[in-house]
């Protein structure tokens, strides 16, 4: 991409904090399923289709009648191949990647399968990292549907894995969201083990929120991904804050996907609604002084820089208090080039170029740019 060549090359190391994979054993599980999340082959498509979202289900059904209407997205080699991940990193001058299982992680597994699957997937990630020491680290997957003792045991074992730098977590928690008091021992164990949570959306908003539409009005992934995902993250963190989770576990640290959804923009409004609710203020002061959402964002929260726009990035820096708390990401293998040319996915990705360009516009091309791109984290 010609435009990207004019962007400054970071002199310090570049670290990608938001980059996913599905190890082959996870793909096998998706292939065996009849309900989402699933992987299905269609005679009209060269790659199998990965169908993850509620909004994609109608096409899954209509594809039976008209296979030219394919649901989901192609499950290319980018999702599972380590060589492809390294090739992508090299193509985009990324020195370090912190890889994570993509959504919906292990959320859907029956209780008895969750812990063994987590062990197997985390050990696959460990082995991948060991083949490229210093270039790859990972956020581990948690067996959230496993019995509580197995879940706690998995945190102990994850903490001893040399390349593990935290855990990836969705917003459903144990099924009732992240403000569920039953999660406090899990958050405490993660904080004690110094494992930050990379919080990532998957469930979005119910499709009905976007209103009734004609058949022509699906607009691809724009409504669920551009709007639903960020609102999901916003709601999850707002609920954690309102429930006092950050005060109960002050050592808990979170990295929020997509620059915190809409939190940087809405934190003021959330605060205003709190201070106008006497009962809520009283409850939130029970442990002593009430910390504002701004204070929590600036002390316990980091944001990725996956927002594709200068204005959003500037809001993210303001909300998290410093560009030191903002971390570059690519979201590979999502958002591949769509030109349709053979081999195009092996070249530079426009989504990455857009993101780097937004960081340059928001930060300039000096130390702040280097810091967001990973300079501060070269000693991962
Ligand atoms: O925007 C993203 O982060 C993603 C992701 O990770 N997974 C997905 O299904 N769509 C978008
Ligand atoms: Zn992602």
UniProtKB/TrEMBL annotation:
Which superkingdom? Eukaryota
Q: Which Gene3D superfamilies match?
A: Metal-dependent hydrolases
For this record, the Gene Ontology CC terms, alphabetical, are: cytosol
GO process terms (BP): secondary metabolic process
Q: What are the protein's UniProt keywords?
A: Decarboxylase, Lyase
Which InterPro entries does the record cross-reference, listed alphabetically? ACMSD, Amidohydro-rel, Metal_Hydrolase
Q: Where is the Amidohydrolase-related domain?
A: 111-337
Any one Gene Ontology MF annotation carried by this entry is: hydrolase activity
Homology family = Belongs to the metallo-dependent hydrolases superfamily.
> What is this protein's name?
Amidohydrolase-related domain-containing protein
Organism of derivation = Cercophora newfieldiana
């Amino acid at each position: 991409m010609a435009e990207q060549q004019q962007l400054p090359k970071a002199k310090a190391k570049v670290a990608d904090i938001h980059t996913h994979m599905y190890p082959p054993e996870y793909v096998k599980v998706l292939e065996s399923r009849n309900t989402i999340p699933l992987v299905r082959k269609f005679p009209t498509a060269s790659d199998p289709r990965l169908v993850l979202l509620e909004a994609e289900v109608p096409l899954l059904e209509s594809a039976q009648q008209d296979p030219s209407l394919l649901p989901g997205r192609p499950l290319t080699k980018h999702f599972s191949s380590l060589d492809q991940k390294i090739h992508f990193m090299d193509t985009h001058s990324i020195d370090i990647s912190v890889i994570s299982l993509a959504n919906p992680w292990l959320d859907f597994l029956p209780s008895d399968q969750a812990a063994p699957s987590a062990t197997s997937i985390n050990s696959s990630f460990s082995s991948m990292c060991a083949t490229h020491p210093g270039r790859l680290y990972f956020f581990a997957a948690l067996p959230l549907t496993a019995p509580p003792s197995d879940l706690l045991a998995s945190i102990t074992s994850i903490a001893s894995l040399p390349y593990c730098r935290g855990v990836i977590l969705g917003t459903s928690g144990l099924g009732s969201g992240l403000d569920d008091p039953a999660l406090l021992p899990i958050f405490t164990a993660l904080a004690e083990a110094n494992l930050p949570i990379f919080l990532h959306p998957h469930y979005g908003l119910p499709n009905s929120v976007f209103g009734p539409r004609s058949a022509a009005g699906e607009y691809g992934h724009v409504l669920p991904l551009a709007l639903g995902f960020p609102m999901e993250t916003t709601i999850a963190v707002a609920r954690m804050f309102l429930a006092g989770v950050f005060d109960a576990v002050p050592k808990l640290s979170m990295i929020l996907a997509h620059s915190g959804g809409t939190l940087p923009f809405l934190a003021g409004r959330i605060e205003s609604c709190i201070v106008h609710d006497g009962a809520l203020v009283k409850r939130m002061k029970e442990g002593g002084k009430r910390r504002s959402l701004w204070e929590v964002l600036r002390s316990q929260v980091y944001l990725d820089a996956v927002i594709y726009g200068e204005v959003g990035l500037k809001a993210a820096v303001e909300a998290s208090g410093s560009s030191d708390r903002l971390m570059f990401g690519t979201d590979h293998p999502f958002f591949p080039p769509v030109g349709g040319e053979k081999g195009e996915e092996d070249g530079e990705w426009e989504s990455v170029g857009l993101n780097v360009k937004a960081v340059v516009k928001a930060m300039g091309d000096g130390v702040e740019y280097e810091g967001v791109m990973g300079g501060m984290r070269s000693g991962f």
